[in-house]
Design a protein that fits this description.
Layout (H helix, E strand, L loop, with lengths): L1 E2 L2 H5 L2 H7 L6 E2 L4 H9 L3 E5 L12 E5 L5 H4 L6 E4 L14 H12 L9
Parallel strand pairs: 1-2, 3-4, 4-5
């Protein structure tokens, strides 16, 4: 499932949504209680530094993707959350975060081996 709010629409994520397989569901609007209920049924959540990512308090595993903001200050506070960020000396934007790192981390989290993933 892809969760998309007004901020994502403004960032032109709409084009990405049109390229997704029909197997992906897109959630465009939901109240916080509805969203929390949906997230609580997920095996793992991956998201950028946003309010939705901080809803990991519902107890699911979460992968927080950080660009230039400091995850030590703004990262989720949960033992079930893992934070990844591009390594310097490159730019600290999400575009610099290797897809392989995200996929590897998600696989590890799904395999319940996230304790071996540095957070």
């Amino acid at each position: 499932m892809v969760i998309c709010g007004p901020a994502e629409e403004e960032r032109r994520i709409g084009r990405l949504l049109t390229t997704l397989s029909p197997l992906w569901k897109v959630l465009r609007t939901a109240s916080l209680p509805e969203l929390a209920a949906i997230l609580a049924r997920c095996a793992v959540f991956a998201g950028h530094d946003s309010g939705v990512t901080h809803l990991v308090a519902v107890g699911i595993r979460a992968l927080a993707l950080f660009g230039s903001t400091d995850p030590r200050m703004w990262g989720p506070r949960s033992e079930r959350a893992c934070v990844i960020q591009p390594a310097p000396p490159g730019p600290l934007g999400l575009n610099s975060l290797p897809a392989e790192a995200v996929i590897w981390t998600l696989r590890a989290m799904l395999d319940a081996t996230s304790d071996s993933v540095p957070s």
